[in-house]
Amino acid sequence: MLCALLTMSTDTQAADTNLNPSWTSITLSVSDLDQAMALWSGIFGFEIRAQKEGPDEGLASGWSISAGEIHRQALLATPGADSGMVHFVEFDQPGPAVRDGAQVFDLVPKNLDIYVRDIAARIKELKAAGWVFNTQSFSDVTAPDGTRFHEIHMRGHDGINIVLLELLDTEMNFTEQGYAGVGPLITIVDDAGKERDFVSGVLGLSMLHDNLLSGPEIEKMIGLPQGSALDVSIWGSADNPLGEMEVIDYRGVEGNDLYARTVPKFTGALHLTYEVARLEEFTSRLDRAGISWTDLGQRSTLSASGSFIRVLSPGGLRIEVVQKRLPGQDTSVPGN
């Protein structure tokens, strides 16, 4: 998020795709649901929207695995929020982390940003609970557009990098414990131009910030070789800080493509879920753009029930799009 906030806002006009600009939920596979719940519910104070134990045919069908391979699940959210939710899934035999052994510039979902109030107090309580941070203290930054914020990176469970972000001049709905989220999911890609065209022209998201960051300070801060740079853009809704997407292309370095790991039973970030008002219109848009998609059919999961499709971004990010089922509504999707 540091990179995203070190940018200037733009007036990019989003395409009309009827897609909700904030993702509804991110699916995180975890090796130990109890550990994840102790952090996200116990410390962060996210409310539990739903829980389930045992096989789940609806979820398994979208992954082409047996229902019995799903052990436990939970859906958590900031109180009152209907976006930026976290869907935890524990498999019967969890695999290695998606980001296992990843370098900072490897191509993979990278960070989850959690907004906080009083970052010093949050760091103290998390350290007391045994969580480890990448630096001894938080960064104090004023962006070119005047945005003031504090930031620190925490080593989360299952290889997930969690960023605590305190926006000093922004009002937000926090939990009683002083947390709100998730804001952006940070994804690393190898071609920013293609990813931007997809996120803007196909998904129809608005660009909120954009910049090319370079120089010795950036190289030192991130741990990059001399001459490297970052093409950074953040996408979503100006009216909602939750459920955003941040796209980073590291210039001057070549990372390993790890997106093939974002499937069961790897642990970590697997995919985002967006809601759409009219799924058939959205799939027609994908067809006109020459983008393949997979019909997942009518499914009922912990986070949504309705007609689902799956599409991959040019960089490899897995995205599920759902038209929620309403009483008396036919949400069937024609075969792809």
What is the average of the pLDDT values?
89
CATH architecture group name of the largest domain: Roll
CATH topology value of the largest domain = 2,3-Dihydroxybiphenyl 1,2-Dioxygenase, domain 1
Q: What radius of gyration results from the CA coordinates?
A: 19 Å
The residue fraction in helices comes out at 10-25%
Number of domains: 2
Share of residues in strands: 35-45%
E-strand count: 18
Spell out the CATH superfamily of the largest domain. 2,3-Dihydroxybiphenyl 1,2-Dioxygenase, domain 1
Shape: globular
List segments where confidence is low: pLDDT < 50 over at least 5 consecutive residues.
1-13, 326-336
Which oligomerization state do the chains in this entry correspond to?
single chain
CATH uppermost class of the largest domain: Alpha Beta
With helices defined by DSSP (H or I, 4 residues minimum), what is the helix count?
7
Largest sheet: 10 strands, mixed
Label the structural class.
alpha+beta
